[in-house]
Amino acid sequence: MIQSALASLTEEHRIVIILRDIHDMPYEEIAENLGVELGTVRSRLHRARMELKTRLAPHLVEGSEL
User: Fold this and answer.
1) What's the domain range around 44?
2) What does the pLDDT read at residue 1?
3) Environment class of residue 2 by beta-carbon count within 10 Å: exposed (0-12), middle (13-18) or buried (19+)?
4) DSSP letter (8 states) at residue 10
5) Nearest to residue 10, comparing CAs of 38, 58, 50?
6) Average pLDDT, the chain
7) pLDDT digit string (tens) for 20-37?
8) Are 41 and 16 contacting, i.e. CB atoms less than 8 angstroms apart?
9) Calpha distance 45→58 (Å, rounded)
10) Cα–Cα distance for residue pair 13/59, rounded to 1 Å
11) Closest CA to 28 of 43, 12, 42
12) pTM of the predicted model, to two decimals?
């Protein structure tokens, strides 16, 4: 389910999720590697996490949280 939800994200969102949440890369390093501003990394990450939450919510057991 998680892999499918991750694959359904836009490339921009998928990349920041992978770099930050899977590879634990610092925000500054992600911004440098992608050639974008730090604020852009933060906003993309927020949007990506919200999208994943929406896509995975139907699969959660009632009473649990993402």
Assistant:
1) 2-59
2) 87
3) exposed
4) -
5) 50
6) 92
7) 999 999 999 999 999 999
8) yes
9) 21
10) 21
11) 42
12) 0.83
